[in-house]
Amino acid sequence: METWLMFAVTLSLTAVITQVNCRRLTKAKILGFDWKNCGKPDSPAVLKTLNVSPDPIAIPGDMTASASGSTSVELSSPLALNVTLEKEVAGFWVKVPCVEELGSCHYEDACVIINQLIPPGQDCPEPLHTYGLPCRCPFKAGSYSLPQSDFYLPYMDLPYWLTNGNYRVQGVLGSQGTELGCLKIALSLHSN
Questions:
Q1: Can you state the percent helix, strand and coil of the chain, rounding each to 5?
Q2: What confidence score (pLDDT) does residue 167 get?
Q3: Considering the entire predicted model, what is its pTM?
Q4: Cα 162 from chain centroid?
Q5: Is the pLDDT of residue 22 over 70?
Q6: Residue 147 CB: number of other CB atoms within 10 A?
Q7: From CA 20, how far away is CA 122, in angstroms rounded?
């Protein structure tokens, strides 16, 4: 019975996902944000701390975050990123497929994506700029720290199938077939 239910849920979710329509998040909230490293104890790239508040986080709205991490190797192009996104459906965790570069996707070079978001030659956005933190590849080996900083989360357009529910995300960073770091995030997203 459980296998049949899991198949039905997966099939239903896949059918819904293939109809990609975006929805503007208004009065959305992120609740229960949690994270942990999932790499090996000797992983070169490690997030040491990450604190976000308030809980829940309103979208649009203000939030506060601080973080620290380190890398014992330079993080440079090509920097592969494997993302696994799961959504809880009827008590089961279902892998969300990669649709239009969103979901459980493999990105061959995260540095290219970063350059699309923050073009070379453009200053890093605040508060990274103020604290002298890099925002594009290569990231030199060393320790990085973002003191408690305020951010504004604007309205966001997301596919409607990603606007409500419990989610787990795992990101694995690698280069030339070597895993450099792994991070897991869990959160609930609720919107009107």
A1: 15, 50, 35
A2: 96
A3: 0.83
A4: 13
A5: no
A6: 11
A7: 32
